[in-house]
Amino acid sequence: MPARNPEPARWLDHPGSVQRIINTLLGICVLLLLADAVLTRHTHFGFERWFGFYGLYGFISCVFLVRVAALMRKLLMRSEDYYEPVDDGLVGDGPIHDGPVDDECARDAPAGDATGTYGRHRGDFPGSDSDG
Amino acid sequence: MAELVGLAAPGWLLMLGALLVPLLPRRALQAMLLVLPALGLVQVLSLPTDTVWSVDAFGYALTPLRADALARVFAIVFHLAALLSMLFALHIKDRRQHAAALIYAGSAIAALYAGDLVTLFVYWELTAVSSVVLVWARERPRARRAGLRYLVVQVLSGVLLMAGAIYQWQETGSLAFSHSSLATPAGLLLFLAFGIKAAFPLLHNWLQDAYPEATVTGAVFLSAFTTKLAIYALARGFAGTEILIPIGAVMTAFPIFFAVIENDLRRVLTYSLNNQLGFMVVGIGIGTELALNGAAAHAFAHILYKGLLFMSMGAVLHRTGTCRGSELGGLYKVMPRTAIFCMVGAASISAFPLTSGFIAKGMIISAAAEGHHWITFLVLLFASAGVFHHSGIKIPYFAFFSHDHGIRHRQVSTRTPRNMQWAMAAAAFLCLAIGTLPGPLYKLLPFPVAFAPYTTSHVVSQLQLLLYSALAFVFLQKTGLYPPELRSTVLDSDWSYRRAAPWLLRHIGRGIDAGLGHAQRLVIAGHQRGLALIRRLHSPGGPLGDPWPTGITVFVAAMLLAAYLILYYL
Question: Greatest CA span in chain A, whole angstroms?
Fold first, then answer.
């Protein structure tokens, strides 16, 4: 389907753009680290005055958080239908085409594609368009 | 006159409005849904902060209306949340949801003004019963069962509250809802009742269980009222209760591990909701003026940005029919505005400078530092970095920017209703406005504020913490250490009552069954053996069944007489 709707490449689609964002982030991080050298803080604890404490603490916290969470997966992860079957029905939240609506980005909504999907869902879940 | 005051008590306007929901034409209904919260807000702002209305009902002194600064700040943000959520839900045709939402918001607001425990109990249960409709309205089997579990937990909390009220009545003769102590059974029961609704660790799982199963718009309402009503109740009843500090600290840290590996992005939001409640609980536990101000300010800011995040994920669910991180991605191309609103919410929950989270959370962390709670301080910093990691980055990244899994071409709905977009825009505006101009919010807080959020020290520390967390995200993604989003269920404490308890009960039941069966078999077998013995003894040819010769009879009689004589002479 995407082939039918060739879309203009976005700035974010260029491989260099993501790298540029990361480089900017790195630059800001270095500047923030240097700020520690000139900044006099009003602190309550001694460790707050260690050079680069906040940055290092944030970085280590996140790595710790993610690695521990990944380990927890081994213990706690089950299949999606572990408790009960997955029902992807959209009844109750069904497609809504009613009242004043505004296409947030009309040019990217391939009408044929979307209505086809909608039709399939409506077939699967009768009554899905009966309420909001 | 008194009755008039009662009807004019905040919240009743919304609840009475629910009666009109089935009657009004569609346009009038939509107008009413927006006008009622706005009128309620005017009413709250014009209500003098020392208004008290007491009645004598059946010999009990009840106080259905007690206005003060603490109730006021919560009531204002509850009205704002009701207004924004109503706007977000304006297109919904299902009138049950509108009626339930009005009663839910109204009863939560009315509960803030309850001056006694019986009044509080009534509204407490009314929020439970009305809010479950917003889960059930999803009309899916999963939602029906999750709603039922939610209702059981909520009603249990209400029952504990009632029990606490009865104990307090017996101990003190008063039903007043004021500061309680954990030293009495009444205080303990109330603490537990509030703790369930505030999602204390291990009492929390109803939140993650039910909210993601609610309707697109229902989850926005749910995210605002129930838990913050509990925070309000804790602030009123247990301010300065030390045990709340470790409880809150655990609450900030432990849900975020689950948030990292959870796939359903609305469920990720419930975990971060839980984490944010932890900050407020810590503030209440510290109990200084700065800390309590911080808890109230954080509740205020949190309701708005959490509502905004639930709205943006609701919009994604509305458009794509799913909220799974594993299937989303690349949506910024079709939902650019929602992506921006979501990022404003994400920045606010992460407490970036110039957002509402920064000026509120900073008060609580400063209060922890001033109280020299250094462990708590470090846990709160860890949780701040973590919440940025899983809510600030993960939510917008996996929904809007990560690898496009083709969800854009499987859209269920090609439009985001305009009212949804306006609601998100308004919430995003408030997040930024409060963050840049904290003065008006600080004026609403229960105590005078002497806190300056925008010092160089605060801003630089916060930016260091957050941007190095972002760096960690980049590092983990680049090195492949970041766990991928997978379609899965992550076990949490609800496993105990959804799997372990039923399994245990089944096995205990089977054990009892087996034991009973065994005992039954033993009794029957013993019975049969006894019968067989009797039959054998008395049947023809058996030892007792045959006629005995006379000689033996005489011999036995003589032996008995001899034994009698011997015993007599002994």
Answer: 66
Burial class (CB in 10 A: 0-12, 13-18, 19+), A105: middle
* CB-closest option in A78, A97, A104 to B491: A78
Confidence of residue B298 (pLDDT cuts 50, 70, 90): very high
Does B179 fall in a domain?
A: no
Q: Does A61 touch chain B (CB under 8 A)?
A: yes
With contact defined as beta carbons under 8 Å apart, do B476 and A62 qualify? yes
Which residues on A lie below 8 Å from B490 (Cβ)? 72-73, 76-78
Q: Which structural domain range is residue A118 located in?
A: 88-132
Distance between CA A6 and CA A108 in Å, rounded? 10
For residue A22, being part of any structural domain is answered with yes
Give the tens place of pLDDT for each residue, B192-217: 999 999 999 999 999 999 999 999 99
Same domain, residue pair A48 and A105 = no
For residue B250, the enclosing domain spans 239-486
pTM above 0.80, yes or no: yes
Within 10 A of B188 (CB to CB), how many other CB atoms are there?
A: 17
3-class SS at B66? strand
* β-bridge pairing B416-417 and A101-102: antiparallel
Tell me if B341 is assigned to some domain.
Answer: yes
Is residue A82 situated within a structural domain?
A: no
Beta bridge partners of A102: B416
Contact B207, B135 (CB under 8 A): no
Considering the domain architecture, whether residues A61 and A20 belong to the same structural domain is answered as yes
Residue B78 CB neighbours (<10 A): 33
- Are both A92 and A52 inside the same structural domain? no
Bridge partners (DSSP) listed for residue B55: B62
Q: Which residues, including other chains, have CB under 8 Å from residue B36's CB and lie 6 or more apart?
A: B13, B14, B17, B102
Nearest to A103 by CA among B244, B561, B35, B413: B413
Residue B54 DSSP class = E
Mutate to test the interface with B, among A39, A48, A61, A105 (most CBs of B within 10 A): A61
**Residue that has been written with the tokens 């600064």 in this structure:** B69
**Among B residues 51-70, those touching chain A with beta carbons less than 8 Å apart:** none
**In this complex, which of B137, B377, B461 lies closest to A54 when CB atoms are compared?**
B461
Q: What is the mean pLDDT of chain B?
A: 92
For residue B32, being part of any structural domain is answered with: no
